[in-house]
Known about the structure:
- By secondary structure, the chain is an alpha/beta fold.
- It has a domain at 4-89 and 157-237: Rossmann fold (3-Layer(aba) Sandwich), CATH 3.40.50.
- 39% of the residues lie in helices and 25% in strands.
- It has nine helices and ten strands.
- The protein has a six-stranded mixed sheet, sandwiched between helices. A four-stranded antiparallel sheet has the order 2-1-4-5, with helices on one face.
- The protein is globular, with a radius of gyration of 18 Å.
- The termini are far apart.
- Bound molecules: adenosine-5'-diphosphate and magnesium ion.
Amino acid sequence: MSLIEITEVKKRFGDNEVLKGINIDVEPGEVIAIIGKSGSGKSTLLRCINGLETIDDGSISVAGAQLLPDEIHLKALRLKVGMIFQQFNLFPHLTAGRNVMLSQMVVKKTPRGEAEAMAKKMLERVGLGHKFDAYPDELSGGQQQRVAIARALAMQPIALLCDEITSALDPELVNEVLAVVKELASEGMTLLMVTHEMRFARDVCSRVVFMHQGRVHEIGPPGEVFAEPRTPELKQFLGML
Ligand code: ADP
Ligand code: MG
């Protein structure tokens, strides 16, 4: 059994069919890069996987549990699968530590002391143990994104979905965030990342998914997808045409 099984998933917004039958099985510990042009359905796919969007057809299961479109199951799913966005979405009036504590206490009803200990541990894990009491506006964009990663990790997810998490950062801050992701990957975290960082995808990911017009157009190890693209669409996307 795969950790995440995405089978014939379809999603439409009105008459715009955005996902046209997606099939991907993700094994535990896999790091998958999702690449493709803007509008190809990458974000929608991630949002379906953690239940932020309902699917119209097909099925998604996470750790053997099928995603059903009712609130109780979606909540359970969001507990299992973490998601990090381009915008860090930290609460500006709360310190880094409190930001990491909050969802644990609200969503998981974790007792304060336990949430605080977990927040300290996870901030340390992303290299920000010394920033527990700092407010978001006292942190760089890269540091804020690392707090957002710590917040997701504090929920102890079985997989992490990252949607262009370095796209809003100044170029010199991108690497510190990618370094954290790389570390998580080496520790065995299962990751699905929508990214424009092709070098990172090549060096760190086990497989690359190229999405085109709502379909998985090509999928394979980075060595194949980047070095031997089979379709003109991928060649063009990679700037080879
Ligand atoms: P990507 O992340 O690859 O850029 P998206 O998944 O964001 O692509 O979007 C795919 C398509 O779905 C686009 O045409 C977009 O306009 C449409 N779309 C995404 N979210 C919504 C929504 N909430 N309502 C209507 N259309 C949407
Ligand atoms: Mg997107």
